[in-house]
Specification:
Blueprint lengths: L1 H5 L2 H20 L4 H15 L21 H11 L6 H35 L12
Helix pairs in contact: 2-3, 2-5, 3-4, 3-5
Amino acid sequence: VRKEIQALPSYKNYAQAAPIWSSLVDAEGRDTKASDLNFIYGIGKIFDPGSVVREGEMVMVENTASLPQRLLSAVNIVNDKGRLTPEMRSSLLAEAQSRINAFNTALRDDMRSYRGIARRYGINPRDIIPKL
């Protein structure tokens, strides 16, 4: 059952996005070019957790139709040797928080179903539901 749970899109999305979210929260307070890049890559991954964001691909601007316009603006600013403003970081972080909350809600809904199944079979849910 654990493998079945780990194969769920809700589990995969949250498992991939949660550490990125932690990194974004950490990077928000650092005002460096490196943290700007970390921030933008992290936002891109949270909006599309299954994607691959490769180093040097700030040309991902061409493939940003699914990303919010603010992310596109942030990429352009950093590409032009600019910097993310605190307001841009806050705005992007708010969008990322919205996405991570949606992933969390979907995962909780799926886990609720598996907890019910476990209880019906007399199994402790902690024995089958992986920790994140």
